[in-house]
Amino acid sequence: MKLKPIEVPSCGAAILPHKTRSRRGAPFASSPASLASRRKTLTILGRAAAAERSLNETFSYSETLARQVLFFVEEYCSHVKGPLTGHPLRLAPWQRKLVCNLFGWQRTDARRRYRYVWLEAPRKSGKTTLAAALGLYMLVVDPEPGAEIVIAAADIKQAMICFSLATEMIARDPDLSSLCRVHKHVISYKDAHLRIVSSRAEQKHGENISCLIFDELHLQPSRVLHDALITSMAARNDPLVLYLTTAGWDPTSLAWEFHSYARKIQDGLIDDPSWLVAMFGAEPDADWTDPRVWADAHPGLGVSVAEDFLRQECARALQTPGFIRSFRRLYLNIWSEKSSVWLDVKQWDACGDTPLALDALAGRECYAGLDLSSTADLTALVLMFPDPDGGCTVLPFAFCPETTLVERTRKENAAYLEWHEKGYVIATPGNVVDYNAILAKIRELAETYHLVEIAYDRWNASMLINELTSDGFTCVPVPQTPTVMNAPMRELERLAAEGTLRHGGHPVLRWCAGNTAVEMSANGDIKPARGKSVDKIDLMVALLMALSRHLLRTTWGPTPLVPLSR
Fold it and tell me: For helices 324-332 and 307-319, what crossing angle results, to 10°?
């Protein structure tokens, strides 16, 4: 389907082959110069965007193309949910600016300037509705031969949200209904298709995608699916990728990687003319209870989400502290951790800025913490080296059965495969934990470092501990009780706050630190709460056990003072 071009500077209607429609809305800008002078392009974190990158002969702006897309979206697409159901889709100013920038700016060879769009905004801001409409435009109007538009997400259910919006828009427009064939997971127009994909990335090599809509990228457990789909676009003449996301919680995730890159582009630290960045949200230290902050952070406030709704959600957060992080993340687009995080993550991250000097650790005394897993789970071994300044250096090791890496990457929203490739996770042969591999690793480490004690959780440890004891290692059980764990947890808080905890930025340890929730006893002692922690905390438990033994030996000497009963 081809839209007739709009004559510039008139506001004449662009039409589908079957009928003419009236043109609504004011024109955007008639030239690159007026465009640059009229706009504060997009908003980043509630502030005006950084100064516009200087334009040169490489790019030109076509109002005709920009207005053509606006016309299609606002004349042929409609609201399909909420009180505006059935009404034409009227774009908010920020959405119009994004569309005009994306489709108006062209390269000298007539291809789009922007190949990647990073749209990060709070929930209920209209991201997915806009993406559904643009997906239909790419299906029926964009000139790419044999267009393949793919909607991807962490799972089919999430991808179906955007796909269902597109199918309902088609159902409400007689022209689109007559032109498009809608199936369960595919919309077809001539030789072009719009469809969703499953999360099984290993099945997605060999695709030939022209436009990729990646919804809620922060939910992606790894980059496997993403990379498989992106590499499938190499043969396309003018590929387009739309990333849609709300703030996430994992700074080791793909979404955080792209979020950081987009911030640098928006702040002018990186010059990448192929990326169009639109980021909305509040500053992390902003008063999240202030409606003025909501208005600054949420582009859909008063349009796609009512202020009364946010007031109710804010009141809920004030009454239920555990909901505060969700409110800040979902409605103000502030990155956070998954649970009520025990440690200050900024302090934790600051302690990992300097890589560990492993050579300097050779021959030094250390305490090992060993948290053994079930047969197919994560096993943790952490060496804790007391430092002369009263701090400590941490050397972590994570073990996982080789055949479970893919499954754990998918199920636990954690980058096991990537961590393994980079050496942060040791894959043991088979589908269960290989205790022989762990035993061999401890023996290897003992040749380089002076292992004073091995602290361990008694659960499932008897066989390995017997082997270690036979080797001459001093092994001490450490119960996971508030009485025992309070001291090392408080000490770790102090070390992190003072910046004398040195962990080298190990991502698996950082993931476990971010997952760790706490449980407090009646007398105020705390311990790691496995049941309340939403993901693995094994490396943190191992570190705390090692630190516990160091504190006890420093205070009382080498006698094992930890009670053996649990």
Answer: 160
Distance CA 116, CA 77 (A): 23
* Domains of the chain, earliest start first: 32-279 (3.40.50.300), 291-332 (no CATH), 345-556 (3.30.420.240)
Rg value, the chain, Cα: 28
Structure tokens, 477: 């059980």
Q: How far apart are the first and last CA of the chain?
A: 72
Dihedrals φ, ψ of 300, to 5°? Answer: -100, 5
Six-digit token string for 188: 């077809």
Cis ω for the linkage preceding 122 (within 30 of 0): no
pLDDT one-digit tens code per residue, 398-431: 999 988 888 887 776 678 888 999 999 999 988 8
* Contact yes or no for 433/399 (Cβ under 8 A): yes
Task: Give me the DSSP letters along 357-411.
Answer: -HHHHTT-EEEEEEE---TTS-EEEEEEEE-TTS-EEEEEEEEEEGGGHHHHHHH
Burial (Cβ within 10 Å: 0-12, 13-18, ≥19) of residue 303: middle
Stated pTM of the model = 0.61
